[in-house]
Amino acid sequence: MLTAKERARVEVVLVRARNPNNIGAVARAMHDFGFGRLAVVSDYPVPLETARAAIDADEVVARAATPGSVAEAVRTCTLVLGTTAVGERALEHPLWTLKDAAARVREHMVDNAVHRVGLLFGSEKTGLSNEELSHCHALVTIPMEQYAGVRHPSMNLGQALAVCLYELVREREMERVISAPAMATSGDVDRLRELFAEVLQVSGYVRRHPAKSDEAQVRRLLLRAVPTAMDAPVWMGVLRQVLWGLRREK
Amino acid sequence: MLTAKERARVEVVLVRARNPNNIGAVARAMHDFGFGRLAVVSDYPVPLETARAAIDADEVVARAATPGSVAEAVRTCTLVLGTTAVGERALEHPLWTLKDAAARVREHMVDNAVHRVGLLFGSEKTGLSNEELSHCHALVTIPMEQYAGVRHPSMNLGQALAVCLYELVREREMERVISAPAMATSGDVDRLRELFAEVLQVSGYVRRHPAKSDEAQVRRLLLRAVPTAMDAPVWMGVLRQVLWGLRREK
After folding, report:
1. Any idea of the CA torsion for B88, B89, B92, B98, to the nearest 10 degrees?
2. Over the stretch A22-79, which tens digit does the pLDDT of each residue have?
3. FRET partner for B63 with CA separation of 20 to 30 A, picked from A62, A160, A250, B36?
């Protein structure tokens, strides 16, 4: 998991991205995961004004750089990774799965405040060219489903970026962990069981199904129902009411 | 990592999704990661025809179900998980990070061919309602950046779905692993070093920098350059040519 300071040393570089929706989606995912440095390399003017509409992502887009070339975009980086769907291209680079790449990025960042990582994404249609890939130390791929006889899949740019950034912050602890409602104690469950046994008795269930009514069986039944501390008193109330109704019937 | 058979027992349920672009993006991510069962629950007619245009996702959309309610969508599921950005909502469910949830899904699936998992996604604007969440065994959240004083972030639907499915198949091995180009052998490097030493000698570098020219130093220099088996002959050729040029100068 990258710290905030380490995330500030990650440069997301979109190469030849021309669709403002895609740029907006990228900026939003960066914002969601706490990354702020975006560069868009393009031969054409980049329609950043349009992308600026993306929810929550205004600041990322407003601060985006528009370097004139990949070389300029990654000039200060010490590790440059190119994302690829691994087509038929002859590979002249090490190829890492995203999981392994994230581990290497963490290693590269830790204890070295001058290390900067560039993460290159090509256009959806053509990916990164060989010239663009020649700036990379290694290639990263998101393992996807392979379909026999079907062209290799490529991901939507915003989705691929979201998955990559998620992997970099995956170990993050939740700041507000409310892992689960508190469970009922064994004592709570046993009081429930006594009341439940009474219901089974009074309702005539025990008479009809004696083999299913012994104490241990009923306790297991209630434990499997995994009552929470919050729910136990509700169940007690329900059972008391049922018992009252059953007794009044007699 | 879920097997293909296990992935066929995962039901992605979009609740109140009305934007065909979002449905298309979801279908594409499902296709990319090898999931096929999509259900869209909506009070309004779902514009699946429009979503069908999504690249690669035709089949997922064509087979999508349109149940009339969440209850109907998850009827055959044995574990139902609701995704949430954890707003201010009082939590009455266990809350798992995506990473933990994926581990539990794997446990739940393994060795039990009748277990089916439902993965619920609410609308981008409002998330899942309390009624919709009441069908869930637990809530899942993708840990995101928290900004002081800013409303809790929520992710783009297609991106959130892609991240969730990625986590479920994250351990997948690449079928065509070409992890790295083969490295040069120590013998290759040593032949390079001999030739390089000759270049340093003939060019006059050794005379000017004797302290930087000893054998071990040069070998370390070349090893740090990490030559691949593919590159070693190229370097040999370059050095031979340089040597030839230097000698002709004399």
Report:
1. -70
2. 899 999 999 999 999 999 998 888 877 777 656 667 889 989 999 999 999 999 888 9
3. A160
State how far the Cα of B139 lies from the Cα of B162, in Å rounded to an integer.
17
Residues of chain B numbered 9-28 and touching chain A (CB < 8 Å) = 25, 28
Helices (H), chain B: 4-7, 20-33, 48-51, 58-62, 70-73, 98-109, 130-133, 157-169, 186-203, 205-208, 215-224, 231-249
- Alpha-carbon distance of B36 to B7, in angstroms, equals 8
Q: What is the mean pLDDT of chain A?
A: 83
- List the single residue in A with minimal CA-CA distance to B174: A143
pTM, full prediction: 0.82
Q: What span, in angstroms and rounded, lies between the C-alpha atoms of A201 and B51?
A: 58
CB A89 within 8 A of CB A122: no
Domain boundaries, chain B: 4-169, 186-249
The whole-angstrom separation of Cα B35 and Cα B12 is 9
CB contact at 8 A, B119 and B176? no
Q: What is the mean pLDDT of residues B186-191?
A: 83
Substitution target from B144, B167, B175, B224 for chain A, most A beta carbons within 10 A: B144
Cβ burial of A49 (10 Å; 0-12, 13-18, 19+) is: exposed
Q: At what angle do helices A98-109 and A157-169 cross, to 10 degrees?
A: 50
- CA dist A148 → A187, B9, B194 (Å): 58, 21, 49
Amino acid found at A240: R
Domain B4-169 fold is Alpha/beta knot (3.40.1280)
ipTM of the complex: 0.81
Q: Which of A34, A159, A178 sits opposite B159 (nearest CB)?
A: A159
SS3 A14: strand
